[in-house]
Amino acid sequence: GKLKAPKSTPSAIINSSGATLLTNQDKCVFSEFFCSAFTYPQHSPLPPVPTPSSIFDIPFVTPVDILCAFRSLSPKTKCNIVHYGLHNPRRIFTINNVPLAEPIVKDRNVEKVIVKDLGVHFSPTLSFSYHISKVVLKARTKMNLMFKSFHSKCPIIYSKAFTTFILPNIEYCSVIWNPTSSVKLTKELERVQRDFTRRLYSRCGLPPVSYSERLRDLKFTTLEQRRFVTDIVFFHSIIHKRYLLDVSSLLITAPLNRTLRNGHPLRISLPFLPHNSQSTLASRAISTWNSLESSSVALPHDPFRKFISSSLNTLFPT
Fold this sequence. Notes:
Helices cover 46% and strands 8% of the residues. By secondary structure, the chain is mainly alpha-helical.
């Protein structure tokens, strides 16, 4: 009697004998059925306690077993090979006497060698145009599904859905494929958010305004600026040993011999001369990192991210 009655209950229930149960008191007879179906466990002596040696009885793996496991691999379905570099000898590698083939996909009716590793598509030339095209296609598919699923006039609902379901796919592993050297790919990525904000204003009945005004009203930043923040923050984590990565071939710490007004002891330099068409994390972030003040680069991870996000107008103007 102390239990609150549910808001909606089944109108009638038929028991095993075919009678219709209408009231809650009649429906309680189901407890009789549960009692009849319940069986007490048989009282029997417990099994003997296993000895410590038999509890964790892991079979011993011999080198012969390992070789047999390798022989059972199927390189045709799981293993591929990609050759990088213009002067690569392009040797042939085999598993169980089966040569490994290059993964070939069709991109706009053109066959290309593309391998997918941890969600990122790599090509022999390290051009991420194919990966970006797949990211844009997936983002637009989700965006169309979102506008079909939601029927609201509230801009907050669409902006939250965009930042939750679409934006993480667009920015996944952007420190690897950030296309700063390609204006075409940068615009192709930015067009996703541009079209989203335009459709949001149309759906919510708002007057059409420019892209910059839509970003200001929705408190968004451009995708290019967001990738810039991700690069600098990831760079900060590498310098402060937050990520245990061997970056000796990517950058070296090179503090200046003389003191500058805006200099800091964590300045870095590149051990190589990057080509104009190449884009690496170090080449993208070196100028911004070296221009920061000592108090800024010494900040912890979260305060440093907030500082970079709040200083976009100075560090990365539109």
